[in-house]
Amino acid sequence: MNRMENPLAGVKSEKFRQVGKPLIRTDSPTKVYGTAVYAGDLTMPGMLYAAVLHSERASALLRRVDTTRAKELPGVHCVLTAEDLPASQGVMTDMPGQTGGMTKNTKQPILAKDRVRFCGEPIALVAAESVAIAEQAIGLIDVDYQDIDGVYDPFDALAPGAPIVYGDDNVVASYKIRKGDIEKGFAEADVIVENTFTTQYQEQAFLEPEAALAWVDELEVLNIRSSTQVVEHYRAVADAIGLPHNRVRLRAEFVGGGFGGKEVMTIEVWLALLALASRRPVRLVQPRERSFLSHGPRHPFNITHRTGVTRDGKITALQISFTSDAGAYAKLSPYILLYATVGATGPYRVDNLHVDSVSAATNNLPACAFRGFGTMQANLACEGQMEEIAKTLGMDSMEVRRRNFIRTGDANATGQIIRSAVWSDQCATQALAALGKRPENSQTTRIGHGVACYQQSYGRILWMKDSSEAWVGVEMDGTVVVRSAVADIGGGQSSALAQITAEILGVPMKEVVVYFGDGAVTPLAGTSTASRALYMSGNATQMAATRVRENLLGCAGRHFSVEAEELDMNDSQVFVVGDPKRSMTINDCVKLCAAEGVHRHNLAIFKAPTSEGIDPETGQGEVFPDFTYGAHAAQVAVDIETGEVRVLQSIGAHDVGQAINLRAVEGQVEGSALMGQGFALCEELILEQGQLQTRSLSEYLIPTSEDVPKIKAIILESGSGLGPFGSKGIGEPVYAPVAASIANAVTDAIGVHIFELPITPEKIVKALRRKETVG
Amino acid sequence: MLPSFELLEPHSLDEALKMLATSEATPLAGGTNLLPDLRAHGRAGRRFISLAALDQLRGVEHKGNRVIMGGSTTLNDILRDPLMPKAAPSLVSMAKVFAGTMIRNAATIAGNICYGSPSADAIPPLLSVDAEVTLTSAAGERTLPLDSFLLGYKKTAHQPDELLKTVAWTIPAADSANLFYKLGRRRGDAITVVGVAVTVVIESGSCSKARIALGSVAPTVFRAKEAENILIGGPLTAATIDQAALTAAQASRPIDDIRASAEYRRHAVHMLVRRLLTQAWQTSGAKQHD
Amino acid sequence: MTDKKTGMAREKLVNIHVNGTACEITVPAWRTLLEVLRELGHVEVKCGCEKGDCGACAVLLDGEVVDSCLTLAWNADRRSVMTVQGLGGPGKAHPLQTAFIEHGGAQCGYCTPGMILAAKALLDDIPNPSLDDIKRGLSGNLCRCTGYTRIFSAIRAAAQALRQEGGTS
Question: What confidence tens digit (pLDDT) does each residue in A552-575 have?
Answer without folding.
Answer: 999 999 999 999 999 999 999 999
